[in-house]
Write a structure and sequence with these properties.
Layout (H helix, E strand, L loop, with lengths): L2 H23 L2 H5 L13 H8 L8 E4 L6 H7 L5 E6 L2 H14 L3 E5 L13 E6 L10 H11 E12 L55 H10 L2 E9 L18 E8 L1
Parallel strand pairs: 1-2, 1-4, 2-3, 4-5
Antiparallel strand pairs: 5-7, 6-7
Length: about 270
């Protein structure tokens, strides 16, 4: 299957998923962003993220999130002092909602619908800071391609912060459960084939539905680190946590294992 078909399939799946997300959220974001102090970075798992963000001076900075989904996290980051934000996402529906939220919040943010690997060159050397959040990297078949884009968009000495689901947690993404001992459902750490979510992508409401075909990929931690280093980004901080991020019931209580991580890097 070509990369173009993979990305267009994911575009359709995320457009479909946003309908379920918006139904589950019931306009809570639209109401929330009317408040200048509102943030979505206030989950229990965000405590470790906040500690890292507080070490960064956002005043007057230009920031991005790649991909940005409906913009809720990028708009929340803007409230730390950034002067401008640009979010990029493949989903038409996500970008449409992000534009609505930016208008409600009255923040200097814009959102662009695009394949991340095709972000326009006008944004080369443009950003002081790029945020990569949970469930982002799995949608890219080749992380070298992804981080080459991230690197070219960063200014010299610009920073990235990744707060992501640990590759270990993806072992459970296809239904493996220690108690059931159903090892046939264990995701291979070394697998290269695409996986999908046939029961949908509604991680807000938990509604199962027949999803448009979508494709995600397992990436080893070495794949992630090497792709970053290969693209002239030096790693400043790398911390692993036993904090579950994705509300996956199959990983509840597995706090003896790494379930999330934060990586901070700087473009050389």
């Amino acid at each position: 299957m070509s990369d173009k078909n993979i990305f267009e399939g994911n575009r359709a799946a995320w457009n479909q998923a946003l309908e379920y997300h918006q139904k589950a959220m019931n306009n809570s974001l639209q109401i929330g962003f009317k408040d200048p102090d509102f943030t979505t970075l206030n989950r229990d798992c965000d405590d470790v993220l906040t500690e890292k963000l507080n070490l960064i001076d956002f005043r007057g900075k230009i920031i991005s999130q790649i991909p940005c989904n409906n913009g809720r996290e990028l708009l929340s980051l803007m409230k730390l002092g950034a002067k401008e934000a640009v979010g990029f996402d493949i989903s038409d529906a996500a970008v449409s909602e992000a534009e609505q939220l930016a208008d409600i919040a009255k923040l200097n943010a814009k959102f662009i619908r695009t394949n991340i690997l095709e972000i326009d060159e006008e944004y080369n050397d443009y950003f002081d800071f790029i945020f990569i959040s949970q469930g982002s990297l799995q949608w890219f078949p080749d992380l070298d391609d992804y981080f080459s884009v991230v690197s070219r968009l960063l200014k010299k000495d610009g920073q990235i912060l990744i707060f992501e689901i640990h590759p270990f947690a993806y072992f459970f993404e296809n239904g493996f459960n220690f108690e059931k001992q159903n090892f046939d459902k264990l995701t291979s750490y070394f697998g290269k084939e695409p996986y999908n979510y046939p029961n949908g992508l509604d991680y807000f409401g938990g509604v199962e539905y027949k999803s448009s075909e979508c494709f995600w990929f397992m990436h080893k931690m070495s794949d992630i680190i090497n792709a970053i280093l290969h693209n002239d980004i030096e790693i400043r901080v790398f911390d692993e946590y036993n904090i579950e991020m994705a509300d996956n019931p199959d990983t509840k209580g597995y706090d003896k294992f790494p379930l999330s991580y934060i990586l901070v890097g700087r473009r050389k």
